[in-house]
Specification:
- The chain has a single domain (3-94), classed as Alpha-Beta Plaits.
- 42% of the residues lie in helices and 30% in strands.
- The protein has helices spanning 12-16, 21-34, 60-72, 86-94; strands at 3-10, 38-44, 51-56, 76-83.
- It has a 4-stranded antiparallel beta sheet with strand order 2-3-1-4.
- The radius of gyration is 15 Å and the shape is elongated.
Amino acid sequence: MPTYITLMNMTEQGIKDIKNAPERTARSVKQLEEMGGKLIGFYMCMGEYDYVGIAEAPSDEVAMGFLMALGAGGNVRTTTLRAFSEAEVAKVIGQLP
C-alpha cells in the first residue's frame, strides 16, 4: 500500500479542545482502518508541526478522502507527502530510459 506522511498543525479549535485530542485521534485511526488504511506511527512534536502521522492507504483517492474528513473536523490542518520506500524508488529508477 502507498505510504503517506502527514504534517499537522492544530487549529484554534483543536488547541482549545486539546483535552479531547486522544479520543479524536482514536476515532480518526478507526476511520482510517474502516477505509482500508493503517496507521504506522503518530507523534506529537515540538517545532513547526504539532503532529506527524505516518500511514498507509490503498490508494491516493482513499488517502485524500480520509484527509478531507480529518480537515472537516476543524481541529487540524494538514500537509501530506506521498512517501516512496527504498524498493519503490529502485523500481522507478529501474524503469528510467
